[in-house]
Design a protein that fits this description.
Spore Coat Polysaccharide Biosynthesis Protein SpsA, Chain A; 256 residues; seven-stranded mixed sheet; two-stranded parallel ribbon; alpha/beta
């Protein structure tokens, strides 16, 4: 990848985001124009079953900037499902994603992409729980986040700190070899991806971030926590291993 301009797809998964979508995409596009000259970049809006004008706005943005903004639409909800679809259909060298609220400061995007593009990491991701991180959020969410990551530690004794920060990227190799093994289609997707990658020997790079909580977040904490615990138990009972020639179709997970 160092012999040519690296192709990078940045995916923004969205559900009923008509209020913030255009502003966020415009902000991200302007940042990439100013800071992404080293890459051949594209923004992909992954709409998963929005019921408002999100898809209409996404299509209008793509029509305005056809070479820089693409759209993927799914008829079923699920952040994990949207990312699987967008990452699987992409032919970019590096695929990443961030939440539409841009809670993670965009200044961290170049280091994340560089870690993947230069061969230093197979998976790179933001962390709100490193000493160098700067985080603004309420006490309740802080306690839940730290407790959840402690539970993961008890299950798998992993080496990363923050599993659920909405700021992650992977190489094409990981998209082909690891992504098909990730079963979850919702918010446990992030945790499952990191655990499977680490335990199968892929190189992870955790990046401290400046992160500001979105008070209008659509995440339902109790429901998400319950599903995450179920996911951890499933992984503990039946942990997937990547074979040398293993190429499992992701389509079976998109339809479930």
């Amino acid at each position: 990848m160092t012999a040519r301009r690296v192709r990078v797809d940045t995916v923004i998964p969205v559900y009923n985001e008509e209020k913030d979508l255009e502003r966020s995409i415009t902000t991200l596009r302007e940042f990439l124009i100013a800071n992404g000259a080293a890459w051949k970049w594209r923004i992909v809006i992954a709409d998963n079953a929005s019921r408002d004008r999100t898809l209409e706005i996404a299509q209008a943005l793509s029509a305005r900037w056809p070479d820089q903004v693409g759209v993927v639409h799914l008829d079923q909800k699920g952040r994990g499902r949207a990312l699987k679809r967008a990452w699987t259909e992409s032919d970019a060298d590096v695929v990443c994603y961030m939440d539409v609220d841009l809670s993670t400061d965009l200044k961290h995007l170049p280091p994340l992409i560089t870690a993947l593009a230069t061969g230093g990491a197979d998976v790179a991701f933001g962390s709100r729980l490193m000493a160098e991180s700067e985080v603004t959020r309420g006490l309740k969410r802080e306690i839940i986040s730290r407790s959840y990551n402690l539970i993961i530690k008890l299950f798998f004794w992993h080496h990363f700190r923050d599993a659920q920060c909405g700021f992650k990227g992977i190489t094409r190799r990981v998209a082909e070899e690891v992504l098909p093994l990730v079963e979850d289609n919702a918010f446990f997707f992030d945790t499952e991806l990191l655990i499977i990658a680490e335990k199968n020997g892929y190189r992870l790079r955790e990046i401290p971030v400046h992160w500001v909580d979105d008070p209008d977040s659509r995440v339902k904490i109790v429901k998400t926590a319950t599903e995450d615990l179920k996911g951890l138990w499933r992984l503990k009972r039946h942990f997937p291993r990547v074979g040398r020639k293993q190429r499992i179709s992701v389509s079976q997970h998109l339809s479930t």
